[in-house]
Structure formats: structure tokens, C-alpha cells
Amino acid sequence: MKTYLVNEEGYYGEFGGAYIPEILHRCVEDLKNTYLKVLQSADFKQEFDALLRDYVGRPSPLYLANRLSARYGCRIYLKREDLNHTGAHKINNTIGQILLARRMGKTRIIAETGAGQHGVATATVCALMDMKCIVYMGKTDVERQHVNVQKMKMLGAEVRPVTSGNMTLKDATNEAIRDWCCNPADTFYIIGSTVGPHPYPDMVARLQSVISEEIKKQLLEKEGRENPDYLIACVGGGSNAAGTIYHFVDNPEVQIVLAEAGGKGIDSGESAATIQLGRMGIIHGAKTLVMQSEDGQIEEPYSISAGLDYPGIGPFHANLSATKRALILAVDDQEALDAAFELTRLEGIIPALESAHALGALPKLSFKPTDVVVLTVSGRGDKDMDTYIDSMK
Fold this sequence. Notes:
By secondary structure, the protein is an alpha/beta fold. It has helices spanning 25-39, 42-56, 66-72, 90-103, 117-129, 139-144, 146-154, 169-182, 200-208, 210-223, 239-245, 274-277, 315-322, 333-347, 353-359, 385-392, and strands spanning 11-12, 15-16, 62-64, 75-80, 108-113, 132-138, 158-162, 187-190, 230-234, 255-263, 279-283, 286-290, 326-332, 372-377.
């Protein structure tokens, strides 16, 4: 059977691999040789599952959104990752990676963050495990996500604002990689999405796959079937999307829909629709689709959502697009805002702007009354209230 998951060389079709400086070769090789042994070990699974249950609050609910369903003429279930401790799906991954870091004898944790959710999740698990934590965050994002910055500091993390480039997620990732190059021996880099050199895309997808594992069980209980007709998720780097589709990706009966950030429009010059605008290139250690100029310079993405303005895409999702396994839709800023307010007023749920892009895909699709749709609400909207308030003026 054809599989869309990673192969032994770290590739998804033609995308993936590990394109890294020599100084990081040993770190990445050690990680590659260790992660599967640890993730598949009984003691790791026991500790990981216990923390997800007792600390994060899993399983997250699968909620039948009745009024939203009536609006779109189908049965829409929301996978409520917004109800996790720290308010997003990111904590699933950071708990798994810090348990791995501890088993590898690392004492210093670094991370990058855009919207701040991954930074908060990393700072949270570092507080839990009593480990030093440094989070790199673009200065632009520091200013627009100030509540998350204060949370990270309260949790004991050092937040380092990055002033290169357009001072957002790409630039924060650049600085985190530079730090890792300078401190390879004691440092573990907790990457927040399915990006970076192999084995990160696969490792993050596996840790987030608890989402799709739960969807299968919950849907069987609620609908008498494990498989939905549609799975919908937003995609920036791609971690919540990878987790949502992991256990369904090889089943062709399930239609996968990924919503990327259209910004002010795909042709506006201010967009983060990487899959639709990108060309093959290398970014942060992986071969994937990259927004770039004619001469290969990385172009600055734009989105109203700080968590989606990344100029690359995880190699897992690049391959899903190239093989036509997933339908990729660009949702622009206004469509995402409209979708967020619609969910809030129909269901009393204020979503993160990232998740609002997934919701913004609903009007672009045609459903039958019998269709079962699962849409992942990857995070809650607390961090985005300033943007929502501004849009109401």
C-alpha cells in the first residue's frame, strides 16, 4: 500500500532530508538514531500518556457543532485542541520532546516561536522538568503577542527578541539554529512544527498523532465509524495538521483539506500561501516548498496570524500537495476573521487566528447532508484578542 509517511532516508516523496551545517551533524545524527527507540519504548509511552492525561487534560473533546453544522449542511465535529493546558495543540509535542531531551542527557532547551503558543508550551514543560529555557521570537511577534511573552517570562524562560529580517517566525528560527550551532553539546532544540531537518518533521508528527488517534476512537463512539469524509486543519509549518491527519493519511476515502494563510490575497505580494506560491528549495534544514525570488532569496511572508507567516512548509504537507492527496486552500485575512466571528456567535467558541483559517475553508467547500467533517480548532483566541478588537472598530 502506498504510504504518505516518511521513508527511512527522511523523505516524503522528493521533500525532506537533513541539510545542515557540519557542526550540527552529530546532534542531528544522535537524534535520528535515538528518537524512535525512545518514542516506542514502554517507559516513554507510559510517562508521555500519563502527562497528556493528567497534565494536559487529554483526550480533548470531539464536539458536534450543531449550529455550525446547520449553517453548512453537514455534520461538523470540532476537535477541541483549544481546551488543552496552555490553550493549543503545541503542548503535545513539547512534552514528548522534553522527555526525549532528558533521556538524551541534555540540560538546556531552546525553541523558536511565532504566535507564542509553542514558546509558552516549551516554557511550561521546562518549568515542569526544571530545565533552562531560551525562546527566540521575532520582535514584530513580541509586540503583537505581548501576553504570551509575559507568560513565558512568568514561567521562567528567557525570551530573546530577534531584530533581523521582518522580525517574525523565520528569523526566530534562524537565531535558534545559530544558538544550536554554538552550543551543540548540552542543548536540545525543541522545534515547534513539522519543519527542520529529519527527524524533526516525523518526530513532531508522531507526537501530535495523538490527535488523530483520539479522533478515530471518538468518531466511532459518536457516529459508529472511524473515518470522517473530510478532515480540515490550518497549515503554517504543519504540526496540528499532521496530528489531525496522521492516522488517516493512507486512507483515500478521507478527503484532507489544508487551509494556508492567504494574507491580503495570493497575488497581493502580502501572503503566506507557501504551498501555492512556493518553489522547491531548502529552508531550515529541509528540502521543501519555499517562497523565494527568481534568484532564490527567501521572500518575506505575511499573515494576520503570527503562527502562519512562515515562508516554507513541512515536507510532509509539501508532498501531500504534490501528490494531490490533500486539497490546499488559501484563506485570506478577512475570510479568517469572518470565520472566527461566525464560530464565536454560532457556538460560543473564540478560536485562535490560526484555527480561524481552517474555519475559513468551510465556505469554499460543498458538503452533502450525510458528510461527516472533522475540523481541528488548534488553539484558543485569547492571544489574538487585540486583533479581533481592532477588527470590530
